[in-house]
Amino acid sequence: MKPNFVAYYRVSTARQGRSGLGLEAQQFAVRQYLNAGAGVLLSEFTEIESGKKVDRAQLDAALAACRVRGATLVIAKLDRLARNVSFIASLMNSGVEFVAVDMPQANRFTVHIMAAMAEHEREMISQRTKVALAEAKRRGAQLGGNRGKLHLIAGRGGEASARARRAVATQRAADLGPIIAKIELEGAESLRAVASALNQMNVPAPRGGAWGAGQVARVKKQGV
Question: Which of 57, 112, 113, 185 is 20 to 30 A distant from 86 in Cα terms?
Answer without folding.
Answer: 185
